[in-house]
Every structure is written in C-alpha cells, then in structure tokens.
User: Fold this.
Amino acid sequence: MSQISVSNMTFCYEGSFDNIFEKVSFQIDTDWKLGFIGRNGKGKTTFLNLLLGKYEFEGHISASAVFDYFPYQVTEEQKTQCAVEFLEQLKQGCEQWRVICELEKLNLDAEILYRPFGTLSHGERTKVMLAVLFSGENDFLLIDEPTNHLDRESRETVKAYLGKKKGFILVSHDRDLLDACIDHVLVLNRSSIEVQSGNFSTWWENKNRMDAFHLAENEKHRKEIGRLKQAAERTRDWADKNESSKIGFDPIKDPGHGGRRAYIGAKTKKMQSRRMQVEKRIADEIEQKEGLLQDIEDPVDLKLMPMQHHKEVLINARDYGIAYGDNEIFRGLAFELRRGERVFLHGENGCGKSSLIKAVLGRNEEWHTMAAGTVKGTETENRQGIREMCLQETGTLVCASGLIISYINQDTSGLRGNLKDFCRDNGLDESLFCAILRQLDLERVQFAKHMEEYSEGQKKKVLIAASLLKPAHLYIWDEPLNYIDVFSRMQIEKLILTFQPTMLIVEHDVRFREKIATRVVEM
Assistant:
C-alpha cells in the first residue's frame, strides 16, 4: 500500500478565467476502491488527466503508483483488427494470458480477442478493455464511466467484477454500481473536496445529516444576525443623538452645557466604538453562515408542461417485428402505451429498443426531431429515412393521430455551435432554455462556449432542457441519463413523479427505473 498525496493543486484551462481546482489538498491510499462523485463539469475527468500528467498545474501530486486509464482510445484502424493484435498498444507490457484470465472473470471466452474489435457490442468492448486494464500488476487504475450504454446483464457483470478488485478510482453516476464496488468516496463539493470512507449510500446519508445540521445552524445565525442588527440600530441612534447634542447649544439658555461637552464627546466615541463592534460581529456571523451553506446541494425543482391527448391508447403494437435484411431484430412484440403511463423498454444491447423508438417516431406526423440537438432536414425526410431504415416490418404498430412527441436521442455527437443558434434552429425560447440549464446546474460561463467544448454530461443536459421546454403528449427518452450526475438524476426523478407525464423510456439505471416506471416491457 502507498499513498497519493495532492498538495495545494491549482489548475485552469488555457484561456479560461475560472480555476477548475484551487489550492486543493487531500490524500488517498492506493489499495482503496474509490468512488469519484461530483456535478457535471466539476473536473472529475480533468483530475484523472492531471494524475496521468497530461496537463501542467500549480502545486504538487506525489505518487509512487503507475496510473492507467479506462477507456482506452481505440483508433479506426484498430477497430478493423482483432484485439489480440493491438493489446500491447493499449497497455505497455500487456501479456495475453493475463488478459484471458481476466476475461474469464468477466464471463467471456478468449475467442473474443480474435474477432474484429469493431464488430463487438458495447458490452463486449468494455469487458475486453477492462480485462486489459486489470491485466497489469500494482497499477492504480482510473476508470471513467464504464457502464454507459451497457444493458442490465453487462452492468451486473461489470459490477460483480469491480466489486472483487481494489486499487482504483471509479467515476460513475450509477448509484447501484457505486454501492456495490467502492469502500471510499472522493467528492467534489461546490467549494471543497472531501474524502470519506463507505459507499455512496453511506456518504449520501452522512451528507443529508450534515446538511440538515448546517441548515439548523444557519437558522440560528439568521436569528442572531437579526438581533445584532437591532442592537446596531439602537447603538447608531444613540450615538447620532449624542453627537448632535455636542454642538449648536445656546450658551445663554444653557450655560452649563459647555462644561459637559467633553463628557458627551467621550460617551459618543464609546457608542460609535460599540456600534462598529456590533457591525463587525454581524459581518463575521454572515461570513460564518455562508461558510456553512456553501457546500449544500439545494437543487431547484424543475417544471414540465405535459399535454393531455384525447385518446387513451397512444401506442399499440400487435405481433410487431423489425428486421434489417436477413437480420431479424425482434418479432412478436405486443404492448400498449396508455395515457399517463411511464413504460420502460428493457433488454440486452441490440435487442431493438432504439429501433422500436425510431419506428414510433417514423409514424408520427407531428414529430420535430431533436436527435443530436439539431434540426436535420424536413420532417418528411426524417420520417422517410426511418421508414427506409426499418426495411422489413411484421405485425402492426399504430400511433395515435395528432400525437406531439418530445424526444431525447442517446447520441450527442451532433451538438455544435452556441446555445443561441441551437435555440433558433429548434424553435426554443432562449431565456427559458437557459433558465432550465441553470436549474440543471450548468454554470453561466458555459453559455458563452461552443457545445463542442462541453463535457458529455453537459451535452446531455442541453438535450434534456430542450425536451422539458417542449409541451408534448408523449416524452420519448432514449438513454437520457448517460453521463448525467447523481444530483441531476434526482432532480429529474422528482420532476417526473410530480408532473406524471406519459413516457416511453430506455434507461439502464436500476434505481431510476425502480422509482419512475409504471410498467417494464421486456424485449
């Protein structure tokens, strides 16, 4: 066991006015299973890159460990090759037999190393890279969002695998994964960094308890400040009254007043001194109060404007199936989506969840695409493109006429340009749109940037804000929570439970599904 020590670390990106980290200091042990928690854009991935030595910074990081990072960057050329051909390029000194041993723990056969990497599913690629990552000895591993885009089975496999490992930092917003895999947390609060033992639920319980204590202390401070202000007001009135009595007297009418002038002056000076002391106490109390509240997460309640459709059944599938050429995706699907329901589509990667969503969108006459956050062609072109993509359909899929849909695509790669242009292209009110982004904790400084500079979580918040701003009968969200921080997930959970919109959702976050779903359709 060794320690990683961070001392007075300060870092900001070139051309930026805001520090990502400022005089940060903490220590962690290299045999910990450390969960890394924080809001989107707070600097989690940046910190991992600082450990890897990718950026220059002020301060000092002391570590005897060798760092390795997940996910590996796989080139387009490597995707055409079998993984066994470029293992050494991913991890220096990587030994094939060690990778095979790790693959067995991930329930994969060694033959997967001899298939072109580009033909593997998301889950298979993740498992191969994790096997390579853990094939070394005595490395301290930096694991960044390993379960995004993975289905339930793959998530459970990765969760069980990481639960048996140690010596890593895990960046994840999946509460179920964090509870199963970590024994310490490293938390980026609003204005501080803390290290605490335990898993996510332990930390969250402690945080809620501490926040409640600080809020109670804050209430005491507010009352004390009110009392001090009243005392300062009285002292100021007394001091002003005595000050005015020093001068302006009539020596004939009040011949003895002049002899008391020195006494009144001394008394006034004492009063003014007392007044200054009270005002200083007020300033100290306010500063202390602000210090107590600076790390409290107080998410603003989001709002939604769902519309009520006149029909009870919005989507009706009977013995429905989709195939691409000779590749049958699914068949025999039967389900109804009724007004007010929140139906989750559930199944392995590649079972056809996104294909079903696109088939629904292709049948909808009122659909304005929000895929990748830009308007792509006309509605007719979008519908036609989806119908051409679904080359063969069997059975029936019927959508209610006049249905207005608000859609979130799982892909954010099309987000480019600034927010003003995004709002114009998608017919959104810019001020309301930015207000929702602020409620999702996107800093105002981000509004001036191009979306290409955003983190993946910040890009997802752009798509979520756009969907929330559009009144609709049906909200179709395809993996909306990938990269979204824990606090925003809880905001969205509360929003949905409050406004009860009709929804068709694909999402692999177990906790989110358990709280939100009225029904799960297995595919």
About this structure: The longest strand covers residues 313-324.
